[in-house]
Structure formats: C-alpha cells, structure tokens
C-alpha cells in the first residue's frame, strides 16, 4: 500500500500545507494539503493492483533496458544521484544567482559552501534513496543523532536555499532540522522558508518588532528563529498564525510597505531560481496558472550549450533551439523557448512522468523517446505535434479557470526587486529590463493565442484546442 496523507499543518489550514507520502515525498506547492484538511480528508490509501502490460512489450523494453548506459552517458543526471539537487547550490552562488536574504542578493559567501551538496554528502548524508522504480536515486536521506531522524529524508536544493540562504542561515544542521519539521507537519519547504525570509526582512526594516514576534529576534542568520517559526507556523501559534497565511496575505495585514518585500507570483512564493539569470523561467513564473514554479519549463542556461549537443538536438525536435552566449538575454526567441518547453513539461505532468528522467533536453529520455513510450506502452499512435498540443490544452484549461475566478493580465508579473540591478557579487549590476519584459509578456500572449489586452483566452484558441465546450454556447450544449 501507499499512503498520501496530511498532518497538523494541513488540519490547521496553513495556506502552504502539502500532501506527503513515505514521510518525505511532498506534493509541495499551492497548498493542496490545506484543501484536503478543509474537507476533513486525512489520507488516501492505494492498494497495489496488477501492473499494466505494455501494448508492445519489446518496444517498451527497448526504453528500459538501456537505462544503465543512459545514466553513465549523462553527467547531468548522474550528478543528481551523487549530490542530489543540492549539487547545484555552489554553481548558482558562484554565478551570483543564489537567492540570499529574501532575494536582496544572489551571493552568499559566508554560507554557500556549508549548505552545498558536497558538504551534505561528506557530513550528514546517511544514504541515497529512490522514489518508486527510479534509477536516478537523487533523494537525500540524512541523519543527525538526537536531532534529525532519517525517516524524514533530507533537504534538497530548494530547501537548502529557502531555509538557508533565503534566511541567511549558514549551517546545514538547522536546515536539516527545518526540513524534518516541514515533513513532520506537512509544509511546503519553499513557501515556508520564503515566508520566514520575508518576515526577517520586515523585522530588519522595522515593519515587525519584538512586540509582534513575541520576543523573537528575526534577524537574518538566526537559525533558531527559523526552526522555531516552522513549528509556530504549523501550529498557528503567535507570529506563526500570521505567517501561516503566506507572505502575500501576511504583507496585506502588516502594511507599512511590506507588500514590496513579498517575493511571490499569484501568491505562490518564488523558488530558488532567479529570473535575472533565467528570464525565460521568469516569463513562466509570471504567466503560469499556479504562480511561480521552476518545473514548468526548461531553464535558460541549456541554450548556452553547443549547437551539436544532445540537448540542442532534442530542443530542435520541438522547435525550441536557439544558441545564446549567456543565459540572461531576453528576446522573442527566448519567449518561444519558454512557451514550447512549458507545453512539453505540461505533457510530462499529464503522463505522470518524472522530469529528471523525461524532458525536452538534458534528461535521460527526450521527445522521440516519449513517442516510443506512448506507442509501445499505451498504444497511443501519437506525434510530437499532438503531444505538444495536449500539453498546451492543459495549460489553457487552467488559464480558463483562473479567468473565471477573476485572474487576468494584471496578475502576470514579477516582484519589482528583479528589475533593480543586483547589488553585489559576480552578478553585480545585472537586472531584468522592465520594458523588454513587458514586450516579452505580450509576445507570449500572442504566441499562446491569448488576448494581449486582457491576457485571457480567445474563443478561437478554445476552438483550436477542442475546448469550445467551455464557451457559453458550448456549456449550453452540454446541458
């Protein structure tokens, strides 16, 4: 049996509560745990059924047989197995794009090395783990006697950044403790760490005082305050009651200009990938139906690889390749890259495929392999064009839902901090050009077939994607 369950944070309706299985695998973003909690649903238990037999067993085995060779030949994916996703932390710091002290900097010289995947592997890592039937084995399991229980897994890159550099915390131990507490209570580590970092900046700028915090010193770098606030948020005690609403709603209640310190899109806190370095990801942050998400499209640096690389050849299969000298350029081709890879990632979500194994560029399996999987595994005689359109259809259905609930173009934006020059480190002076970003958004709307004035879907686009039944006349027909 497998169990997807909620816990205290979800029962207390923390806005960013999540759903966990195996104590350490989180459906982390957008507060789905709170939705379960609001319905008094504590768990979903699934009993294993007989495995499905592939339609074409021989064709299906052609994909699975070569997994060891694929891993050996793919240094990007194999490094994920060695150091976990936290292996990326040092590279982002050295480039000057590791979110630090609530995104006021991208450089963390006093703590980056301590938070790195290599340091974790050399100190507190107990073993590598795997999700069901996955050969990559990137999952971290850490143990600190008397402090961190290995059953709760270990922190990944996003958590090491959110609970570490976001908050100015320089030690891996409190990050591992915070990760364990989030998994025990059922909290998304990204939103939790980012909300605490927001509160810390509010405190340092006088928008929150010790009278508001219950005597807590919320200065950046106070590791005890970070771990203490995780529990306070989960139980909605003291300042935790306010922060359990997430940074966007907390800022509305604090006032005093606190809204300017919120690093979120559509209320969803921003992951540890800075759009100054990855503007195509920034475009997706802005337009994504469920807010800032780093796994909804491919990331810009892949376009700096050689044109004859496997990554370039795969991206060319879906029409998304264009070579760049650096990753922070933003033009019409970058927008096209963002949109097309967003559609591709959307189909991997529909098919429930792991994005480190299946994707449009650096993953173990590329677009052509996905066709083989659909044909030999499911008997779906499809094409890349149909797959891309299927992914696009999902995105448009979510966009339609948002429009119905009152969301539009005015919610498609980024925090103003990203348009100001980076203040220090290797990325000093780099920013997103605001006018170019606005142009890029308009280019995205046109490419997606949306109304550039409202940002909403057009009737023609709905009909093109076989979603005409969502139109008023279509709904009448369904009745």
Task: Provide an overview of this structure.
It is globular, with a radius of gyration of 22 Å. It has helices at 8-11, 32-38, 57-64, 67-73, 75-83, 89-95, 112-115, 117-122, 157-162, 172-185, 189-204, 210-213, 223-235, 239-243, 246-254, 279-287, 310-317, 332-350, 367-378, 384-404, 434-448, 459-464, 472-478, and strands at residues 2-5, 19-21, 25-27, 43-46, 125-129, 139-142, 264-265, 268-269. It is built from 23 helices and 8 strands. Helices cover 45% and strands 6% of the residues. It has 479 residues and is mostly helical. The model has no long low-confidence stretch (mean pLDDT 95). α16 crosses α21 and α18 (332-350) crosses α20. The strands form 4 sheets. A two-stranded antiparallel ribbon has the order 1-4. A two-stranded antiparallel ribbon has the order 2-3. The protein has a two-stranded antiparallel sheet with strand order 5-6.
